[in-house]
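Collaboration report, partner site 2.

Our partner group contributed sequences for two proteins of shared interest, and the home lab folded both. The records are reproduced in the order in which they were received, starting with the first partner submission.
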Amino acid sequence: MTVNSLSQARPTQPLRGHVDVLIVGAGISGLGLGHYLVTQQPGKTFAIADSRDAIGGTWDLFRYPGIRSDSDLHTFGYEFKPWTSDNAIADAHEILDYLHEVIDEDDLARRIYLRHKVVRADFDSDAARWTVTLERDGEQSEVTCDWLFGATGYYDYAGGHRPQFEGEEDFEGLIVHPQSWPEDLDYAGKKVVVIGSGATAVTLIPAMAGDVEHITMLQRSPSYVMPQPRKDPIANSLRKVLPAKAAYAATRRFNIGKGRFIYNLCQRNPKLARRIIHAINVKALPEGYDVDTHFKPTYNPWDQRLCAVPDADLFRSIARGKASVVTDRIARFTKSGILLESGATLEADIIVTATGLKLLPFGGIQVAVDGEVKDVHQSLVYKSFMLSDIPNLAFAFGYTNSSWTLKVGLVCEHLCRLMGYMDRHGYSTVVPVVDNPMIEKRPMLDFSAGYIQRSVDLFPQQGTSGPWTVEMDYWSDHSRLRKGAVDDPALRFGTTVAAPAVSASGATTA
């Protein structure tokens, strides 16, 4: 399915009436649940609402040069749909093509409502139903649903994290944030400075290096950067001798294990992991390069996410002399660039502030139960997909130390099983309840990255035991979500006879 055919197939009228499930977000998580509902709960009516005018979430929002996955698509792709491209590290347009194929294969287009921003959701316990307020083209309307599913990701689509620098008003060039990349930005032959050392920076540098006069990555402190083959030789070899599904399943399982092995090595033997990464960096960079200054972080590997560079493209740009890395602090912007605390200056025509994301839980939706607005930070996460004291609400939040989508599939599958269980027993509501008021709490996002720590108090919390932990291990979740029972002592099921529902046109047929 193409963008044009999607536009032709989507409903033309605003979403109104009632659906069994309202999915908020038409990115990789929301479309994933759409597939599982079609295949595992074919009797359920559902709609997918997204505030933007295109599907794809992250992969449509970001338009900066080189935008790509930082996980292999054999684990970042859906379990149910083989990734068949030769590229394991995929560009955004390849991922969008893949998502459009899912929409076409599962007939999801007629259920997708773009430019429908969800602003509020209020659960009525007597009716066992959510009333959801949508905003479209400046006008508000309401839709009701039995289940609300948050597939909103975890960052603020309105804008990224953008610290203010002294002297910005003096700079005569252009300042750009990657989340708001101008489509007509001409950087050919220009001097460019990219502020930052994370995944966005290491993507931008090699993508722009061939066209600019010179590009500099200015970092306050280094991150771990690891080369990774863009093409997976094992996957591509298996596809030549096995059916696509079998080759994909084998590659996926192998890559899950490989990723877990690397993560555990970094956590359990960080000194050895440091030495290995350092040796790889030394080999990839020019002889005599100051690796210790520019690529030797103070923290241990996987205390923050590793930055993957496909086919060592960042290192190759440095070796060719088109890119450089400067590790220093900014004193101020000047008329022609940046003055550093060391006294050195960097000339620039364009400064790119790859300074991170702003996080936003559940897309900023105001959630209320029986008129009481809920502070989600006070809730504990149940099995990584529901919140204590909030009925019939589920969400997808992927791994921070592995491919996001690995968890999404398990969550969607478990939710469909839970819906089936409730239907068989005549239940209309379910709510997780914390029985132990003295349970120890810790952040849901237990990760030291700066963009996480800036917003950790906005997100729910997790406990330290039982179903209240947020697992960051695929096989632990596999046991809990795929193999484990959906009934649980922490869940309270209820039965309410709901009022007759008016179906939402264009969204509900199975």
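Second partner submission, folded after the first:
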Amino acid sequence: MTFCMPMQRAGKSVVRRLGILLVCALVLSGCDRGPQLLTVKAVAARVPSLAPFFDEESGLGHDSTVRRQQPHSGLQAGNTPGLYGGTRKPTICDVNRLKKFLTDPRNDRKAHVWAQVLKISQDEIPAYLDRLTPVLLRHDTLVQNHDYKKGRAAPFNSLLEAGIAILVDEQGLPAVKCSCGNPLRPFAGDASRISVKFENGNKKWDGYDRASLVAVKPAPRRIEQLALVDVDNPDRGITRPAGTTGAHDSPFDTHERHKVPEVAGMGFGDASQRLADKGLAAAYGEKGPPPDDARVTGSDPAPGTELEFGEYVTLSVERGTAGKTGRGSGDGTTGETGEGRTGGTSAPPASGSTTPGGSGQPPPSSGGATTSSPPPASSPPSSATSGGPPGASRSSGSSESSEPPPASSASASRPPPAVSSPPPAVSSSPPTSRPVTSAPVTSAPVTSAPVTSAPATAQPVTSDPVASDPVASGPVAGEATSTTTA
């Protein structure tokens, strides 16, 4: 008995230890289920970089203080009116000084690395800088930053505080941080899975709000001029031609009202650009922006509604094209930054209300409601039939053709009917009135000759198979859904 007691105690101790190890293993396995948080280093305004490309004490650029704006979503197009701010002071960014520094033979190594980051050749640096435009951030903005360490570029994800001076390229993407000359690239992570680190003098700034961070995706086409808000006087706007530093600025009144243009029937990218030309911003209701070629079916507010500069117009696009978000407009951002606050899952109808939002019910389609009856079997579906872009109708057809057509299974199970009693859809009705499954394909001639003049077995089938017709139970490409963009 005296020998068994220690053995029992030892057994209980082992069991207890195994239980603790099992609990730890379960906890660790649960922690590994979700993706790891992406570390993002905060970069505050007027705080020098630890390893800059350019000596910040030389006055290459100067940050400012701005009033932070609440963005409509976490992903903004580079041509969004009011995305960036400006000032009438000429010292925001000295592009000529940066050009001299990077073309100086003594800085050849830095220039070579700098050009590599921006995917240009070293000889292209002067011309590239001439196409950039100085602006001030109006939002805390996510980018991929680059320090210069040991002769190489050291990339890191960073959050630039609103008020930092940067240079943007011809599509509105951040390209250079002015004060240190560090090259910038689009943020390529998921903004909903980040951990912002405030360190090395970059203390958490006043007004910091995790829900107000933005990333920038490229504009749908080259920007001719940027519509900025004067950070010293928000009632005044600044029109700055791309590639200029302020000498050719022209002011405008930010309270002047602009009519919402007609954009139904346009691609999403072209519609967004038309709104931007009017000083209005495009919004979308989905988690990510639709592809640029997604067909717009309506807007909220409706065309003709007057809005002030920078207000948002929610665009609705066809359901068949809205899901194919090629976020990738060349930027990692882009979907990249799918914050859960990019708008929700449904957009408001084109009801003519003056603010984005609404009931969330999809508006009626502005075109192509012909999908309730199938098209003729002798003609394949086209973009005109589906109401969407050519690419959308082709993709819809290809997805449906992978399923076996109903008629083929019927023909395999029973012989074709006698020639003397052809299906009425062939002899007397237009193709659109014939149900898709009314007869096997091989049983009816499709030529203009009478049915009784040629047996069905001797006449080759010249029409497209039934599988080319849209299946009534499949997705309707002309049906509209709401999406929003900013």
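Feedback sent to the partner group on the second submission included the following. Residues 321-486 have pLDDT under 50 and may be disordered. The two ends are 80 Å apart (CA to CA).
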